[in-house]
Amino acid sequence: MKIGFLVSGGLGELAIKYFVGKVDIQFVLTDKGSNGIIRVCEQNKIPYFVGNPRSSKIDSFIESKNCDIIASVNYLFLINRNVINKAKDFCFNIHGSLLPKYRGRTPHVWSIINGESYTGISAHKIDEGCDTGDIIKQIIVDIEPEDTGSIILEKYKNLYIPILEEIFELYKNGAISFTKQDESKATYFGKRTPEDGRINWDWDFERIRNWVRAQASPYPGAFTIYNGKRIIIDKISKSDFGFHYQMENGTILSLDPLLIKCSNSVLKVDSLRNNDVKFVVNDRFE
């Protein structure tokens, strides 16, 4: 069984390290930031390509390559038909949601933001759409009340190797099956940047809490503005401190603990990254 890998980042490196010597790796496509993957390829003399596979340079690299299937793990780029067609049988990806829900980027973060109680990973065929290919296997992952985006990703890390192993074994035994996605249930969420993390104090407490924990450290973090300075908040909880509903949302009600009025309650800031800022009661976060 000959395998091609499309891999990026820590999850991609985890997969490559594990499968070296266990399967016949024909080639690896990766990105310039994935130095660990590049090192593994060089140490094991695996042919690799660094960069956007939609560039013209990919054609000369991929021309002589042949494999039975191609596996994509955390790969940063969309691929063209010329790469997909290099797989004799099929090309598949591991996506961080239960497709067809949460197609697109950082789906585990969006799942927390939207208050979901569970998420998961999906192995699906790669076609020329965005996360639209037939499903091979799915695993459900619970989202616990205190889970952050980083914690969910750690849960995923424990599942990637087993699901890849299972798919390779099914393929070897001729037992792979595919299920079409239900387009009527599909949702799509786009790429997030640090600038997308700003808290809206007119939201209710639960939405703000999900917003904060989804982006908590080591992610860039949910933030607010105070006297022109960005304040990054990593954890909040609900307080029973009294308030008048006509108070402006974002108003600072107490300093120790730091209490902030939102639309339906008062929240307590349990962890923030700005320990050098002096707040003033009755000032307002923007």
**Count of DSSP E strands?**
14
What's the gyration radius in Å? 22 Å
Query: What is the CATH superfamily of the largest domain?
Result: Formyl transferase, N-terminal domain
Uncertain runs: none
Strand content: 25-35%
> Sheet with the most strands?
7 strands, mixed
Nearest-integer average pLDDT: 95
Name of the CATH class of the largest domain = Alpha Beta
Quick recap:
The protein has 286 residues and is α/β, with parallel strands linked by helices. It has 2 domains: 2-189, Rossmann fold (3-Layer(aba) Sandwich); 194-272, Formyl transferase, C-terminal domain (Methionyl-tRNA Fmet Formyltransferase, Chain A, domain 2, Roll).
Describe the structure.
It is built from seven helices and 14 strands. With 286 residues, it is α/β, with parallel strands linked by helices. The protein folds into two domains: 2-189, Rossmann fold (3-Layer(aba) Sandwich); 194-272, Formyl transferase, C-terminal domain (Methionyl-tRNA Fmet Formyltransferase, Chain A, domain 2, Roll), CATH 3.10.25. A seven-stranded mixed beta sheet has the order 3-2-1-4-5-7-8. Strands 10-11-14-13-12 form a five-stranded antiparallel beta sheet. Helix 1 links the parallel strand 1 (2-7) and strand 2. Helix 1 runs parallel beside helix 2 (35-43) and helix 5 packs antiparallel against helix 7 (205-214). The model has no long low-confidence stretch (mean pLDDT 95).
